[in-house]
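Entry under discussion copied across for reference:
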Amino acid sequence: MLDSSELSPILDHEPGASNVADGAHALTAWHYGDPLVEQSRLDKPGAVGLVDGWDRVAIRITGGERLTWLNSLISQKVNAMRPEQVTEGLVLSAQGHVEHYFGITATEDALVLDVHVSRAEALLTYLTRMIFWADVQVEQVPWSRLSLIARHPIPDAQPAALLASDRRVGSWHVRDLWFSRDKITSAWDGLREQARPTGAMAARAVRLEARVPSLEDLDERTIPHEVPAFIGAGAVGATQREVEEEGPTDAAVHLNKGCYRGQETVSRVQNLGKAPRVLVLLTLDGSVNRLPEVGADVTAGGRTVGRVGSSTHHWEEGPIALALIKRAVVEKLATDPDQVPPLQADGIDVAIDPADMVKDEREAPGRAAIKRLKRVD
C-alpha cells in the first residue's frame, strides 16, 4: 500500500518544483516556479500541460466475473463495458450518501480504478470484503499516473505506458498515462519533450472551472444529485429498466441499471423530487488575500446556507471555490436576488457564478405521472 505521506520523486527531479500549498506540503508540485503563468499558457493554441499524478492510486480488478460483480456495487453500469472505454463511478452508503469516487478504465482483461491515495486503502478494503465467492481478484498495482491536459485533442505520440485513457474535464482534454512507479522520472522526461510541467494548482483551477469535485468538496451527507457532474446534463426523465447491452455513461451515475447499495435514494430523487443542495462555483473577494478553509460555512446574512470545499486562484477568474449550497438559496438568487443577503465563506465575501444561478423548472417525472393518474380517475 502506498504511504499517503510519500512525496513524488518529481519534486527533486524537476527544477523549480514547490509543493507548498496554503502553508501545507502536498505530495506533488503545487507549481514549478510561476503558478499563474503555468495556468495561462495552458489556454494558448497548441499548448499541452504535464501534470504529476503521484497522489493517484490504481486498483486493478480481474477475474471472469469482474464486470457483473463491480456492476452490483457501484452507481455506474459496467456490466457491458468494453475495452478502452472510460467512465467514473461512486460507492454509496445504504442511505445514498457518497463514500467513494473514482475513475474506471476497461482493458481486455481488467477494470482499473483511479482513486486518490487518501481513499485508496478504504476502497480496496471495501471491495475485497465484497468478493465473497465471486471469480474476482482485487489488488493495488505499483503504478503512478502522469496526465497531459490541453484545450484540444491530444495526439498519440507518447512513450509506451502500462495503461492510457482519454477523458474530458469540462472543455479540457485529458490523457492519463500510467507507468511503473520506479520508472516515473524517465517517463516524465519523455513526456516533457511535448508538454510543459504544470502543477496541481493549475490542475485544480481546471477542475473547479468545470465543477468537477474531489471528495473534499463533499461531506458525509452528499447525495449524487447534489453534484450535477455526477448525474450528467442529459439525465432527464424517469429511471428506466436496465438494457443489458447498454454501456456506461460519461457521468458517475447511470440511472438505468440493476440494484446496488444506495440506488433507492438516486431513483427517489430522480423520479420524485430535487436534491436539497447543489454544487456551484463561487468567485471570492481577492482583496482579503486568503482562501477559505475546506468545510467552512457559507452564510447569507449570518445564516448558514452551505459548505465551501476546495479553492484556488484561477488565472482569469481570480480566487474561486466549489461549494454545496441550499437549492432554495440558489433558485432564489436566480429569480429574486434582492431577497438573498450577501454571501460569505469563512468570512470572505463570495458570489455564486451566474452560470450556476439556475432555477430547476423540471417537474419530477414520478409526480407528473401521479398527476396524470389522478386526472384519469
Residues 238 and 289 are 46 Å apart (CA to CA).
